[in-house]
Amino acid sequence: MTTRLLNHCLSFPKLSLKRLNNIKSYINLGTEMKLLNDKKQFEKALAIFDHHGINNITTLSNFAITQVLKACAHTGDLQRGKIIHNLIASETKNDIYVSSTLIHMYVHCGDIASAQSLLDSTKNKTPPMYGIMMKGYIKNKQTNKAIDLFNEIQNPNDVHMILLFNACAQLKTKEALDLVKKTSEQIPKSFYSNPRLLTSLLDALMKCGDVAHAESLFYSSKQKILPMYGAMMKGYVDNNLPEKAIDLFNKIENPNDVNIILLFNACAQLKTKEALDLVKKTSKQIPKSFYSNPRLLTSLLDALMKCGDVAHAESLFYSSKQKVLSSYGAMMTGYVENNLAQKTIELFNELKNPADVNETLLNQMKLDDIQSSIPIYLSAIKAVSQIGDYSKAQSIAKQIPDSSLVENQIRGALIDLWVSSNKVVSNLLRF
C-alpha cells in the first residue's frame, strides 16, 4: 500500500534516461545516483530511483538510500523524503549515516520539528548530527535552541564552535557576547588554526559590539584571509565606524567582491565628497567580472546615490542588462534622499508594468522576496508623501502584498502618510 502511495505521489517529470540502460544491477544504483548528485543533477538521480528503486526500496543498500535522500534534500522534495523515511524506518533506524542524512533532509526542507524529533529518538548521536541540527536552528532563527543543543555536546569540535559563534552573532546580546568570550577562552589552541573559526569568532564579537576585542584578535592573528577582513569591515560598518573599514580595505592586497561591497557600504555611510571619489576610483579599477555580481552593483548604486552623484548612478543603472529588485530599491531610495520623488514614482511605475521586461521582478515582489521589496514600497510611500500627491498613495498602497504590510517600516510609513494627509488609517491598512 505504501509503495503504491509512493508511486502515486512521487510521479516525476519525464527526463532523458539513456544512462539507465547502462545500469546492470541494483548494486550499481547507489553509485550511479552519487555520480549524479556530485554533478548536482539531483532530478536525474531521483528519476533513476523512480525507475529502479521504488518497487524494491526495502532491499536497497543504505548507501543508495542516503543518495536518494540527498537528492530529496537538494530538490526540496519533503513529501518524497517523508514517505521514504516511513518505508525504511524499521530497517535503518540504527544506521547513523541514514539517520544523519534524514536529519539533513528535514533541515534542508525546513521541517525542523521532524528533524528534532528524529535527533531526539536517535540513541547514538554523532557530531555531524549535532552540527546539522544546530545549522537548521540558526537558519530558522531558533538561535537559543542551537545554543542549548551545543551545551549537550560532550566534546564539541571546531564546526560546533563555528555554529555556536554564528548563533551568538545572530542574538547580538550581552549574554551572547559573554558566551562567545567564555567559549573562546576554553577551546583548544589548535582550533585557532582554522580560519573559518577565527572568522566566525570575529563576526560574533563585532555583531555583539565588542570592537576592541575583535581588533585585538584580528591583529594578533598571523594568517589573515579575505573573509576575516570581510568580518572586520562589516563589523566596522555595523558599528558606525566607516573610516576604519576603509583603512582596513586599503591594507588588502587583492580584495574580492565582498570586500569591495563592504567598501561601498562604508562610503555610503560617510556621504562625503572624499567617499564619492573613492567609490568612483575603485569602481574603475575592479575586474569587469565583478559587475556580474548583483549585490556589488546594488551597493555601488547605493553609494553613488548616498554621496549625491545621481547622474553617475543613473548611467550605471540604465546600462545594466540584468537588473534585480535590490538595484531598483537602491535607485528609488536614492531618489527620495536626493529630493527627486517624482523619479521614484516613475521607476516604481516602470517596475510594476508587466508589459516591460520586469515581469519576473514583479512576480518576485508578489511572492517571497520580501527583503528586496521593502525598500521599493517604502521609497514609493515616502515619494508620494514628499510630493504631497496623496491621490496616488492609495493606488500604491493597494499594490503592497500582505506579506510586506506586516513589516514595521512599511506600516509606520503608511501611518505617517495618512495621518499627514488627514485620512483614516484603518481605511487603508489591511490589518
From TrEMBL:
Transmembrane segments: none annotated. Signal peptide: none annotated. InterPro entries: PPR, PPR_rpt, TPR-like_helical_dom_sf. It holds the Pfam family PPR. Gene3D superfamilies: Tetratricopeptide repeat domain (1.25.40.10). NCBIfam families: PPR (TIGR00756). This is Pentatricopeptide repeat-containing protein. It comes from Rotaria magnacalcarata.
